């Protein structure tokens, strides 16, 4: 047996922290309810960390990440670590109560203190809390909470590698003051980081990883220029620094990266980073960490292809080559071993966080000892993949050909909007300033309980459908009483806007335990798209037809768009996202056609994730928008001219994508505008957006019901920007999280405000 002396160092950048069976979620929530003290919370966290160390050890990973645990969010932890809680909270010590105050707000004698805002972490579905910096609040290090965790990890495994979000990424992602003002504070913050690094060195850590994923963004030159001087200040005797970039290629910045005063750099090969070019430039004493296993993919890697790529590098770099997943494994579910309900041929191809560890060490062995040493793993990968390819439903050649043929022509409605509008008006006969809602009505306890009982087989399908029909009938009656113009069925049968569709489609699988942290204690369980998407039978037609049968007013059909289904799922790795989006669009197109044939006169295709899908760097935007728009148009263009197509997008900016929004050519778009005080409409006004718009006039995230006057004011603002014959009146988003009382009151006011305004026009 050859001696395995020079195995490349394997390491992780971070690991899921919610624990098996979402242990940390349950612990947090019982703590917040006042049922468990912080000791219990710490115990759970300790167990979760010990288990992930154990898994790293069993797999043989040399340097597990540590210090990446959080009871809520790492950016919020850093706020407290550096004494940056916003002034309204007074002096917050770095403890759990403070963390929960930042995350969830706090009530005080002066009223309630708003929590930090939350926003998406790069292009993931994880949300971080946005620190609010100010121009001169000093950075004061209060590191004991973090140091304790690192001490614990080093005791468990002395090779553990503490991980910190880097100072420039921290500043870039913060708010409170302008970008310029934040950058000005970088030297001062670097000094605080330097003290922290000395303390970490004193605990015996050999390496610290500093994450600077902003290196993959479009960064102003002054920010790029700040890296070198700032990292000079972070040099710490006895400690080596690994600088990590991920999520988006560092294109054009390889020299900057190679020459930073650090001991190693990590790049994201899965995102397209050029490992070989970086290897060429890297000074001979530095480590190159190859993020080769896609840390965002649930699929097993092609180990043999990765070895092809890594072998020449390993030959050149030897032990300077490290191996890792591309990014923290936080964005993956924990353990595919739990997925005992999936078809074995599918389950065998899944690699969640735990499986990534084994793949990682297999790669390292394959490099150091030759492929023969991992023959079994290589063979297993090939066999598993072959079984997946052979799985019924993976590849439907006939369907693919047909799809390619239909996509050959640009999907376009038969007539331009202006003509369609006339046909639609003739059919729908709506007043000016028509009122509508975004789709969902209150999901009462009763509705949820009925869905749950049906899922568990406690009531049969007939009883379930009976209950849902009753809920729909009630929702229709309420809307008639409220005198809304374009009605909806209310979506009582839907748990989640992607899951509901995925569960009825071929090509989707749902995991038992595939939870991924979204924020705090909240987790999502994204479906997995593994096969060609097909629609065995219509998805929504029966419900829509039933709803329409109850009223003379038009009822909108309600679908989730192709891009949103794609963005909120894990997607197969053998087709482009574009190709899968078209498959999703194709089944929606069939559904739209069926709804039209069933006499539905308006259909809404929700795309709240349309903007989220944008690549992190501008260069990729046109390519994405091109196929995202085409997928939407393909789904909707089958509708005859007299069927009104709506779309809906939640809180997002439209300025820089307004041409793409117009290119969707939806007859009506409803958007969320209340919180911006109708500012988000400006982009539409400046562009002279040609179709109809429903800017939301009721912030449904708040329990406050707007008055007729408030709604009227918002509509008047909107009328400065949108011609009266193209303006709709509606809430910001669906009403499913609100109670019936508020919904009735809010809609009553909304209808009254629309009626008042009609008299003025
Ligand atoms: N139709 C959906 C609803 O009303 C839209 C949800 C969303 O925009 N996220 O709930
Ligand atoms: Zn919405």
From TrEMBL:
<keyword id="KW-0479">Metal-binding</keyword>
<feature type="binding site">
    <location>
        <position position="120"/>
    </location>
    <ligand>
        <name>5-methyltetrahydropteroyltri-L-glutamate</name>
    </ligand>
</feature>
<feature type="active site" description="Proton donor">
    <location>
        <position position="701"/>
    </location>
</feature>
<dbReference type="InterPro" id="IPR013215">
    <property type="entry name" value="Cbl-indep_Met_Synth_N"/>
</dbReference>
<keyword id="KW-0677">Repeat</keyword>
<keyword id="KW-0486">Methionine biosynthesis</keyword>
<comment type="function">
    <text>Catalyzes the transfer of a methyl group from 5-methyltetrahydrofolate to homocysteine resulting in methionine formation.</text>
</comment>
<dbReference type="InterPro" id="IPR006276">
    <property type="entry name" value="Cobalamin-indep_Met_synthase"/>
</dbReference>
<feature type="binding site">
    <location>
        <position position="650"/>
    </location>
    <ligand>
        <name>Zn(2+)</name>
    </ligand>
</feature>
<feature type="binding site">
    <location>
        <begin position="438"/>
        <end position="440"/>
    </location>
    <ligand>
        <name>L-methionine</name>
    </ligand>
</feature>
<feature type="binding site">
    <location>
        <position position="491"/>
    </location>
    <ligand>
        <name>L-methionine</name>
    </ligand>
</feature>
<dbReference type="InterPro" id="IPR038071">
    <property type="entry name" value="UROD/MetE-like_sf"/>
</dbReference>
<keyword id="KW-0489">Methyltransferase</keyword>
<dbReference type="GO" id="GO:0032259">
    <property type="term" value="P:methylation"/>
</dbReference>
<feature type="binding site">
    <location>
        <begin position="522"/>
        <end position="523"/>
    </location>
    <ligand>
        <name>5-methyltetrahydropteroyltri-L-glutamate</name>
    </ligand>
</feature>
<keyword id="KW-0862">Zinc</keyword>
<dbReference type="GO" id="GO:0003871">
    <property type="term" value="F:5-methyltetrahydropteroyltriglutamate-homocysteine S-methyltransferase activity"/>
</dbReference>
<feature type="domain" description="Cobalamin-independent methionine synthase MetE N-terminal">
    <location>
        <begin position="10"/>
        <end position="316"/>
    </location>
</feature>
<comment type="similarity">
    <text>Belongs to the vitamin-B12 independent methionine synthase family.</text>
</comment>
<feature type="binding site">
    <location>
        <position position="606"/>
    </location>
    <ligand>
        <name>L-methionine</name>
    </ligand>
</feature>
<feature type="binding site">
    <location>
        <position position="568"/>
    </location>
    <ligand>
        <name>5-methyltetrahydropteroyltri-L-glutamate</name>
    </ligand>
</feature>
<feature type="binding site">
    <location>
        <position position="606"/>
    </location>
    <ligand>
        <name>L-homocysteine</name>
    </ligand>
</feature>
<dbReference type="InterPro" id="IPR002629">
    <property type="entry name" value="Met_Synth_C/arc"/>
</dbReference>
<feature type="binding site">
    <location>
        <position position="612"/>
    </location>
    <ligand>
        <name>5-methyltetrahydropteroyltri-L-glutamate</name>
    </ligand>
</feature>
<feature type="domain" description="Cobalamin-independent methionine synthase MetE C-terminal/archaeal">
    <location>
        <begin position="433"/>
        <end position="755"/>
    </location>
</feature>
<dbReference type="Pfam" id="PF01717">
    <property type="entry name" value="Meth_synt_2"/>
</dbReference>
<feature type="binding site">
    <location>
        <position position="491"/>
    </location>
    <ligand>
        <name>L-homocysteine</name>
    </ligand>
</feature>
<feature type="binding site">
    <location>
        <position position="672"/>
    </location>
    <ligand>
        <name>Zn(2+)</name>
    </ligand>
</feature>
<dbReference type="Pfam" id="PF08267">
    <property type="entry name" value="Meth_synt_1"/>
</dbReference>
<feature type="binding site">
    <location>
        <position position="648"/>
    </location>
    <ligand>
        <name>Zn(2+)</name>
    </ligand>
</feature>
<feature type="binding site">
    <location>
        <position position="733"/>
    </location>
    <ligand>
        <name>Zn(2+)</name>
    </ligand>
</feature>
<keyword id="KW-0808">Transferase</keyword>
<protein>
    <recommendedName>
        <fullName>5-methyltetrahydropteroyltriglutamate--homocysteine methyltransferase</fullName>
        <ecNumber>2.1.1.14</ecNumber>
    </recommendedName>
</protein>
<keyword id="KW-0028">Amino-acid biosynthesis</keyword>
<feature type="binding site">
    <location>
        <begin position="438"/>
        <end position="440"/>
    </location>
    <ligand>
        <name>L-homocysteine</name>
    </ligand>
</feature>
<comment type="pathway">
    <text>Amino-acid biosynthesis; L-methionine biosynthesis via de novo pathway; L-methionine from L-homocysteine (MetE route): step 1/1.</text>
</comment>
């Amino acid at each position: 047996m050859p001696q395995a002396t020079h195995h490349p160092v394997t390491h992780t950048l971070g690991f899921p922290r919610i624990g098996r069976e979402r242990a940390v979620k349950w612990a947090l929530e019982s703590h917040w309810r006042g049922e468990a003290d912080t000791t219990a919370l710490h115990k759970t966290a300790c167990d979760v960390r010990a288990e992930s160390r154990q898994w790293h050890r069993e797999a043989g990973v040399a340097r597990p990440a540590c210090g990446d645990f959080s009871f809520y969010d790492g950016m919020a932890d850093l706020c407290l670590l550096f004494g940056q809680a916003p002034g309204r909270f007074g002096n917050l010590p770095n403890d759990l109560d403070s963390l929960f105050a930042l995350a969830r707000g706090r009530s005080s004698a002066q009223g309630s203190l708003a929590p930090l805002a939350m926003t998406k972490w790069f292009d993931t579905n994880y949300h971080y809390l946005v620190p609010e910096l100010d121009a001169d609040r000093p950075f004061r290090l209060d590191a004991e909470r973090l140091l304790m965790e690192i001490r614990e990890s080093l005791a468990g495994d002395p090779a553990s590698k503490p991980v910190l979000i880097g100072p420039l990424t921290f500043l870039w992602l913060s708010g409170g003051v302008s970008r310029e003002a934040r950058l000005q504070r970088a030297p001062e913050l670097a000094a605080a980081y330097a003290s922290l690094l000395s303390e970490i060195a004193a605990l015996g850590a050999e390496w610290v990883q500093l994450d600077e994923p902003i290196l993959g963004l479009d960064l102003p030159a002054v920010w790029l220029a700040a890296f070198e001087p700032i990292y000079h200040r972070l040099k710490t005797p006895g400690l080596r620094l690994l600088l990590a970039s991920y999520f988006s290629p560092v294109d054009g910045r390889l020299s900057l990266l190679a020459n930073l005063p650090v001991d190693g750099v990590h790049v994201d090969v899965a995102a397209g980073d050029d490992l070989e070019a970086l290897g060429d430039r890297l000074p001979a004493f530095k480590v190159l960490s190859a993020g080769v296993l896609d840390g965002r993919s649930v699929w097993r890697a092609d180990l043999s292809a990765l070895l092809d790529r890594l072998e020449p590098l390993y030959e050149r770099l030897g032990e300077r080559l490290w191996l890792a997943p591309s990014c923290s494994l936080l964005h993956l579910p924990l353990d595919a071993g739990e997925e005992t309900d999936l078809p074995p041929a599918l389950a065998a191809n899944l690699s969640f966080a735990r499986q990534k560890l084994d793949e990682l060490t297999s790669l390292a062995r394959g490099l150091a000892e030759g492929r023969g040493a991992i023959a079994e793993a290589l063979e297993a990968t090939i066999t598993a993949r072959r079984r997946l390819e052979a799985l019924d439903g993976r590849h439907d050649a006939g369907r693919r050909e047909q799809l390619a043929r239909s996509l050959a022509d640009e999907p376009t409605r038969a007539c331009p909007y202006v003509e369609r509008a006339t046909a639609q008006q003739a059919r729908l006969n709506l007043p000016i300033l028509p009122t509508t809602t975004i789709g969902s009505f209150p999901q009462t306890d009763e509705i949820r309980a009925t869905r749950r009982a049906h899922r568990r087989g406690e009531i049969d399908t007939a009883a379930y459908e009976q209950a849902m029909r009753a809920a729909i009938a009630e929702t229709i009656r309420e809307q008639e009483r409220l005198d809304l113009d374009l009605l909806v069925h209310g979506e009582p049968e839907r748990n989640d806007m992607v899951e509901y569709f995925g569960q009825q489609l071929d090509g989707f699988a749902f995991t038992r335990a595939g939870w991924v942290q979204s924020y705090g204690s909240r987790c999502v369980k994204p479906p997995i798209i593994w096969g060609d998407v097909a629609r065995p039978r219509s998805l929504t037609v029966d419900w829509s037809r039933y709803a329409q049968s109850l009223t003379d007013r038009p009822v909108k059909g309600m679908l989730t768009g192709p891009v949103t289904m794609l963005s909120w799922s894990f997607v197969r790795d053998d087709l482009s996202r574009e190709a899968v989006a078209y498959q999703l669009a194709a089944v929606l197109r069939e559904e739209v056609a069926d709804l039209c044939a069933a006499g539905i006169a308006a259909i809404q295709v929700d795309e709240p994730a349309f903007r989220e899908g944008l690549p992190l760097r501008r260069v990729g935007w046109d390519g994405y928008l091109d196929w995202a728009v085409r997928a939407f148009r393909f789904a909707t263009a089958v509708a005859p001219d007299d069927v009104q197509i709506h779309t809906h997008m939640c809180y997002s900016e439209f300025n820089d994508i307004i041409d793409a929004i117009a290119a969707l050519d939806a007859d009506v778009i409803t958007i969320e505008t209340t919180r911006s005080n109708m500012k988000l409409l400006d982009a539409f006004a400046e562009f002279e957006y040609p179709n109809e718009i429903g800017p939301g006039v009721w912030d449904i995230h708040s329990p406050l019901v707007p008055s007729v006057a408030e709604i009227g004011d918002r509509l008047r603002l909107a009328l400065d920007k949108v011609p009266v014959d193209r303006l709709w009146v509606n809430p910001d988003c669906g009403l499913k999280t609100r109670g019936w009382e508020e919904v009735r009151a809010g809609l009553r006011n909304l209808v009254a405000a629309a009626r008042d305004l009609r008299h003025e026009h």
